[in-house]
Input
Amino acid sequence: MAAALGALLLAAAPDAPWAEYGDVILNRRSEAQGVRPVVFPHWFHRIRYRCKVCHQELGFQMRAGANDVQMTDILDGKFCGMCHNERIAWGPDRCDLCHSGLPGLKSGIVGGAQTSGPGRW
Ligand code: HEC
Ligand code: HEC
Ligand code: HEC
Output
């Protein structure tokens, strides 16, 4: 299992920064809809949860920019909204904590072996 996952990761991202450690920018819809891009601190989350919580049970595809997430889904408890619901973690009303990216950031991976959370990119 671990070896298979390692091979999968290498195949998925041969030269990109490692998503496991960096931050993932989600900006398929945000800026076009007038809010800042979303900065998702992958490392911060992945040290707290197993991969399969998000990549199997929640259905997040393991490819930056692959997931089409809308706020209605989050409010319905899907994607980020499974946890960001004021019970497991702070809720969807905290717009700026997720929509913290600088204008113009493209979907993809930024950063390296650190987490940064809101306010860095
Ligand atoms: C827990 C994280 C989180 C919070 C909190 C959050 N969002 Fe989002 N939001 C996202 C993600 C992820 C996307 C999809 C990003 C993309 O691909 O552009 C998104 C997309 C959007 C979009 C574009 C898509 C759509 O559904 O119209 C708008 C507009 C938006 N958010 C507004 C808001 C507003 C306003 C708030 C606060 C009331 C808020 N968001 C709070 C994570 C969050
Ligand atoms: C809290 C949820 C969560 C957990 C836990 C999580 N991930 Fe992710 N992961 C995401 C999200 C969200 C994305 C970005 C998807 C997007 O951009 O549409 C992502 C993206 C990725 C990518 C894509 C990177 C790229 O280069 O395109 C890989 C690979 C990945 N995760 C691997 C893992 C591994 C391995 C683990 C466990 C060690 C893990 N993830 C744990 C939510 C999570
Ligand atoms: C499996 C549960 C889970 C999912 C799914 C999840 N989060 Fe979180 N997230 C958490 C928890 C728990 C915290 C810590 C909350 C706290 O400190 O009060 C957190 C914290 C954060 C932080 C703050 C990090 C910091 O440095 O303080 C951001 C930003 C964030 N999440 C964005 C997102 C976005 C965007 C998504 C969807 C793409 C998402 N999260 C999906 C559980 C989750």
About this structure: The pocket of heme C (ligand 1) is lined by residues 26-30, 33, 35, 38, 69-71, 74, 80, 84, 92-95, 97-99 (CB under 6 Å). Residues 50 and 56 are 10 Å apart (CA to CA). The chain is about 25% helix and 10% strand.
